[in-house]
């Protein structure tokens, strides 16, 4: 149940962040909005880390450099999301974002990329993706 609550919270924050970033970008530019967002996210994470006191910097040496670059995707995510919201609106952007996320997750799971346990995809998973895509197309009509 905790996982579902965190997923819902994360999804809500993605939407709110996209809308906020779009408003910021109209005043100062898209890459500036990405910079401000990444910086404020860093500050909040650092503050939370100070309170949690769960610091283990020794584990940083164990992380592959490729994975350390994961945070850099945030800048691309913000730029892409803001640009899409400006062009196609919030609802369609988030819908397309979720489909892209689900499709890539499907590829990662089914191929066992990045060390995840390989999952066998069956008809229900294919139907779920197809239904989501159909829903977005219908919503956009």
UniProtKB/TrEMBL annotation:
Q: What InterPro entries does its record include? A: YdcZ
**In the UniProt record, does the keyword Ubl conjugation occur?**
no
Q: Which key words are in the record?
A: Membrane, Transmembrane, Transmembrane helix
Highest taxon of the source?
Answer: Bacteria
Q: Where are the transmembrane segments?
A: 30-52, 64-82, 88-109, 121-139
Q: Does the keyword NAD apply?
A: no
PANTHER family named among the record's database cross-references: INNER MEMBRANE PROTEIN YDCZ (PTHR34821), MEMBRANE PROTEIN (PTHR34821:SF3)
| Name by which UniProt lists this protein | DMT family transporter
- Per the UniProt record, the source organism is Paenibacillus illinoisensis
Upper classification of the source organism reads: Bacteria, Bacillati, Bacillota, Bacilli, Bacillales
